[in-house]
Design a protein that fits this description.
Helix 4 crosses helix 5. The protein contains 11 helices and 12 strands. The protein has 370 residues and is α/β, with parallel strands linked by helices. Strand 5 and strand 6 form a beta hairpin. This is Class II histone deacetylase. Belongs to the histone deacetylase family.
Length: 370
């Protein structure tokens, strides 16, 4: 067995509409935002260039490359109400549109979003059925912000939640842990499982980035789910050492306490130092080291069952190096794609009083949770 790599060219064809950066385009009387060639930061090149780099270095030959089937109507309906799915499909069959906040899609967008969810489902199932040691789903559009009836933050369907519910329904697992290291709070995943004790949701994110009104450490779940949601909000500029401290002192102990059957990582790369939507100073080495921790935790707790599902990350030049480091670590490959910005980012890491403040912040969170 080896690492499964699930992708589909059609997912790169998802297209958003009338935006420049995250602002809707409008002339006089409409916001004075001039159209741009780039559109939304969520564009296919960050993902396609990751795939391309993995091919060029030869790492792709060491992975088991697979394609997934679209999530079925039944699988989607376990998370999303059918009236929402019907509205989404109707717009998609027409000319496209937008159902939530910053979630434009073109004609055929429903089918691509269902395929993106299907990639996550297929990757998770391959691990749970023992077909792969671990697996990576290059899903696009992303999913961790999507609420059952409200797409937002570029996310049209809740990919990871759909995959989890499908696995539970098939009897492949009983307890799943989600570790979300995207720079933005995983508000959709949190909301879907907030009152559940069979899914542990952990989000490590930049405090008050997006959404600005969710992700507080005080939000620990409700009802049966109380204590099964963990938010780890970090100050902007936290950097490599703080992320590793969060993993070692907060995430890993929470996983050990929960004892999952499998671990899913919502793998966003927007905590990287040059991301246009984050300010966290992480590097390719940060993502490699966090992946190492997840592989070790999965080996210890759940027979190595680990799945990573691609979320955000909007620096098309730098995301590929972060993703390559993750895939090399997952697969145990010796192939490297040297980080061209490693020295610059290392020199910019917090130190002195800032480092002491960040260490104290992790200590405060540890006292809160444990």
């Amino acid at each position: 067995m080896k690492t499964g790599f699930f992708y589909d060219e059609l997912c790169f064809w998802h297209s958003g509409g009338n935006y420049a950066f995250t602002m809707q385009v409008g002339g006089p009387g409409g916001g004075l935002v001039q159209p741009s060639m780039g559109g939304l930061p969520e564009n296919p090149e960050t993902k396609r260039r990751l795939k391309n780099l993995v091919e060029v270095t030869g790492l792709m030959a060491e992975l088991d490359v697979r394609h997934g089937q679209a999530a079925t109507e039944e699988e989607l309906a376990r998370v999303h109400p059918r009236d929402f799915l019907n509205r989404f499909r109707a717009l998609s069959n027409d000319i496209g549109g937008e159902l939530g906040l910053r979630t434009p899609f073109a004609k055929g967008g429903f089918d691509i979003a269902a395929l993106s969810a299907g990639l996550a489902r297929s990757a998770l199932f391959s691990v749970l059925r023992g077909q792969h040691d671990n697996a990576y789903a290059l899903s696009r559009p992303p999913g961790h912000h999507c609420l059952p009836e409200f797409p937002n933050g570029f996310c049209l369907l809740a990919n990871i939640a759909i995959a989890i519910e499908a696995a539970l329904a098939e009897g492949l697992t009983e307890r799943i842990a989600v570790v979300d290291w995207d720079v933005h709070h995983g508000n959709g995943t949190e909301a879907i499982f907030y009152d559940r004790d069979d899914v542990l949701t952990i989000s490590v994110h930049q405090d008050r980035n997006y959404p600005i009104d969710t992700g507080d450490a005080a939000d620990i779940g409700a009802g049966r789910g109380e204590g099964f949601n963990m938010n780890i909000p970090l100050p902007a500029g936290s950097g490599h050492a703080t992320y590793m401290a969060a993993m070692d002192h907060l995430v890993i102990p929470a996983l050990e306490r929960f004892q999952p059957d499998a671990i899913i990582v919502a793998c966003g790369f927007d905590a990287a130092a040059v991301d246009p939507l984050g300010r966290m100073l992480c590097t390719a080495e940060t993502f490699r080291a966090m992946t190492e921790r997840m592989v070790e935790a999965a080996d210890l707790l759940c027979a190595g069952r680990l799945t990573l599902v691609h979320e955000g990350g909007y620096s098309e030049a730098y995301v590929p190096f972060c993703g390559h480091a993750v895939l090399a670590e997952m697969s145990g490959s010796a192939i490297r794609a040297p980080d061209p910005l490693a020295d610059m980012f290392a020199a910019r890491q917090p130190r002195g009083a800032t480092r002491r403040f960040l260490d104290a912040h992790i200590d405060e969170l540890r006292a809160h949770f444990f």
